[in-house]
User: Which sequence fits this backbone?
């Protein structure tokens, strides 16, 4: 135990010896800091006291100023900061204040007043220790500047940094806004399994676990898609889920192995109808939570108001790279062209992977304003329906903002025979050395064989959306407890 902690532990014992429980079972609070401040600000001009009113307030001590026979303490609760005045001649237990420290949770009973400087304040008649802190809080400006420490000990970050509290308040309100938007459109919120028999619905490496009760291996889901489409097959015409996915892969400013997805599936809709819904949903969330559709991200001024730009996959490659996919119709020719241009083109990559590499290299960084990239190569999208009149392409869009992808949608493939063929083609890619493929899900195929109506599906990364709306340049700053490497002794 270090010296400072020992001093605080000694104060715990001193409180107990004085008959004070440093960790009482209950706390009285009748008003928040914001309510007291509003009460004082509403006093008539010239009035200095809310006569006849007694309030109980509570919070963490964040500042203390001893001034002779009076002490000013600032407390912080979930609604703001409030000043409390304690006078030696009016406070019943003034002497025990010496056992308080920054970081302690305390309660005060007293009268709301306006000080000579106009500061809303509670003039306390009694005080109560609610929870004695054994460690000092981090210093506001110097104690918690390291990003790893802030993310590893998020509770200290929240304690010290108002901006961090703002980010996660915005996150919660954004999710609530999305729910309201979808509920109002007749969508039903559902929950699907996290523990699954095999990875399906996306091309990603899973986390593995063992299901002891049935003695079988399971994976943590990498996608919500196939179970949600089972529900459309079963008769729910509009469903959505907001939940965690897990992909045992690398980390970057926009990738985290554990992330939150929102997916919707709507019967009798296609990807163009979904695009209209997506731009309305995002702009609505911005308006509700921020009060504007205009945001700033990495020095870019971005407007999320509809309509968003729409451009096809091939047209975008033509615009930003003068690369016409129709001139390179197979993996061999496209690989050779990309290598000629100095773009990474692994020998194991199939045609779809090479198209994606070209798009990521040339197009994605240029899509700053909200953009729907439409009509992807069929090899990239084994779950999407082919585009009528152009069987090389599927009805799919990805939406991009600030140079990175934040949403993905299909007109869903509902032909069970073609879907099986697409899955089998993915297995051929895996056999050729490509690990990022979508595997066969026989139960989903069996479900699809019972008939699924024309359906539009949409998936959006909640973490990336919150990054945009809060101006955070790393996904780890919008996840309360991002994964961290264990501390070694």
Assistant:
């Amino acid at each position: 135990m270090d010296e400072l902690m020992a001093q605080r532990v000694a104060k715990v014992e001193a409180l107990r010896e004085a008959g004070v429980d440093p960790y009482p079972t209950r706390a009285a609070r009748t008003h928040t800091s914001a309510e007291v401040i509003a009460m004082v600000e509403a006093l008539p001009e010239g009035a200095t006291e809310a006569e006849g009113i007694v309030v109980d307030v509570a919070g963490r001590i964040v500042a203390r100023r001893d001034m002779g026979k009076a002490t000013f303490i600032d407390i912080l609760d979930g609604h703001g900061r409030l000043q409390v005045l304690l006078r030696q001649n009016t406070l019943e237990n003034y002497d025990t204040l010496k056992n308080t420290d920054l970081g302690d949770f305390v309660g005060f009973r007293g009268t709301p007043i306006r000080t000579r400087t106009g500061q809303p304040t509670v003039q306390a008649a009694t005080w109560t220790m609610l929870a004695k802190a054994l460690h000092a809080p981090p210093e506001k400006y110097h104690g918690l500047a390291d990003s790893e420490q802030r993310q590893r000990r998020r509770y200290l970050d929240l304690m010290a940094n108002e901006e961090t509290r703002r980010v996660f308040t915005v996150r919660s309100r954004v999710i609530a806004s999305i729910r309201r938007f979808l509920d109002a459109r007749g969508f039903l919120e559902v929950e699907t399994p996290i523990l699954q028999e095999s990875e399906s619905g996306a091309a990603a490496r899973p986390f593995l676990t063992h299901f002891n009760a049935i003695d079988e291996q399971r994976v943590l889901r990498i996608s919500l898609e196939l179970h949600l489409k089972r529900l459309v097959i079963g008769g729910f015409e509009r469903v959505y889920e907001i939940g965690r996915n897990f992909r045992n892969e690398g980390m970057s400013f926009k990738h985290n192995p554990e992330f939150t997805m929102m997916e919707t599936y709507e019967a009798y809709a296609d990807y163009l109808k979904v695009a209209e819904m997506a731009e309305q949903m995002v702009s609505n969330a911005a308006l509700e939570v921020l009060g504007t559709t205009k945001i700033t991200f990495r020095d870019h001024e971005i407007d999320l108001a509809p309509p968003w730009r729409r451009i096809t996959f091939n047209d975008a490659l033509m615009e930003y790279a003068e690369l016409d996919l129709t001139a390179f119709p197979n993996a061999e020719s496209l690989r050779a062209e990309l290598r000629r241009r100095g773009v990474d083109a692994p020998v194991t990559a199939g045609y779809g992977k090479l198209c994606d590499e070209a798009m990521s290299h040339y197009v994605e960084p240029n899509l700053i304003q909200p953009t729907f990239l439409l009509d992807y190569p069929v090899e990239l999208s084994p779950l999407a329906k082919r585009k009528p009149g152009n069987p090389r392409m599927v009805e799919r869009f990805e939406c991009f903002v600030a140079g990175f992808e934040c949403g993905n949608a299909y007109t869903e493939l509902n032909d069970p025979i073609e879907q099986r063929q697409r899955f089998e083609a993915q297995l051929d890619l895996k056999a050729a050395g490509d690990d990022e493929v979508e595997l066969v899900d026989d139960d989903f195929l069996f479900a699809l064989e019972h008939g699924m109506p024309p359906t539009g599906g949409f998936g959006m990364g909640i973490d990336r959306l919150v990054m945009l709306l809060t101006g955070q340049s790393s996904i780890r700053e919008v996840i309360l407890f991002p994964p961290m490497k264990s501390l070694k002794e």
User: Anything to note?
Assistant: Residues 109 and 126 are 5 Å apart (CA to CA). The chain has a mean pLDDT of 93. The first helix runs from residue 3 to 17. Residues 3-137 form a domain with the OB fold (Dihydrolipoamide Acetyltransferase, E2P) fold (CATH 2.40.50.140).
